[in-house]
Specification:
The complex is a heterodimer of chains A (76) and B (160).
Chain A lengths: L10 E4 L3 E9 L2 E7 L9 H15 L5 H10 L2
Antiparallel strand pairs in A: 1-2, 2-3
Chain B lengths: L1 E4 L3 E4 L5 E3 L12 E5 L7 E6 L6 E5 L1 H4 L9 H6 L8 E8 L8 E2 L5 E4 L4 E4 L11 E2 L4 H6 L1 H7 L5
Antiparallel strand pairs in B: 1-2, 3-4, 4-5, 5-6, 6-7, 7-8, 7-9, 8-11, 9-10
Chain lengths: 76, 160
């Protein structure tokens, strides 16, 4: 992993289109500004991982929609 | 094309019912081609079926049936990727996760699936700074769903 030390107000370029600016540091929280092309998706890692996990759980569901159908019928 | 699937056996998929997800979906970034299979007309559920891996499919539903107040803003990069024009017709779906206990089924409101019918493109959008999560109970709307099956059909979004 590449490690760079940056001060508040300084920035990092990733390629020639993505810029990360250190906006501020408070305690153990760093505020980062991100400039990137519109087509680049930017996510908090834990959010992206939670979607991955949720999709994986959803794809391996052993029950099919007939089970859901039964449930709906039961609630009629 | 013909496709062998886990849930439906071999199905025939017409080109015009294919959806392209340019970057796949999280967890399945390598899968870019999907179709939507509506297995039972009276149910508000469909399957988002991978065309590349027959064993991969997701149960999807219209989130507004269960959560009528559901709303989100489509981020710029998503509009770009979906090639959304001014009069684009969009369909919104949410992925349902079933546990062994069906009553514990949940719906993912944090990452809706948006389809642009005009360009046949789809994307699972991850909402920023949202109070929605990946696991809202599905059965909140159960009485509504079974009371008005006919409206479920008309509101069920685009199926293929």
């Amino acid at each position: 992993m590449l490690v760079l030390a940056r001060k508040k107000g300084e920035a990092i370029m990733i390629g020639d289109q993505i810029q990360l600016v250190i906006l501020g540091i408070e305690g153990d929280t760093v505020k980062i500004g991100i400039e990137a092309p519109r087509q680049v998706g930017i996510y908090r890692q834990e959010v992206y991982l939670s979607i991955q996990q949720s999709n994986q759980e959803a794809s391996t569901s052993s029950v099919n929609i007939h089970a859901l159908a039964k449930l709906l019928n039961k609630t009629k | 094309m013909k496709l062998k699937t886990l849930h439906f056996g071999e199905i025939e998929v017409a080109d015009e019912t294919e959806w392209t997800f340019l970057h796949g979906i999280p967890g399945f970034e390598h899968l870019t081609q999907f179709t939507i299979v509506q297995q039972a007309e009276h149910l508000p559920f469909s399957y988002l079926q991978s065309l590349e891996e027959g064993a991969i499919s997701f149960i999807i539903t219209n989130p507004f049936l269960v959560y009528p107040e559901y709303e989100f803003e489509l981020p710029d990069f998503a509009q770009e990727e979906l090639a959304i024009s001014e009069d684009a017709e969009l369909a919104i779906w949410s992925i349902v996760t079933l546990k062994d206990d069906v009553e514990g089924a949940t719906i993912n409101l944090l990452a809706p699936i948006v389809l642009n019918a005009e360009k046949r493109r789809g994307k699972q959008i991850i909402l920023h700074d949202s109070s929605y999560t990946t696991k809202h109970p599905l059965l909140r709307g159960k009485s509504k769903a079974s009371d008005h099956p006919s409206t479920i059909q008309s509101e069920g979004g685009l199926t293929c």
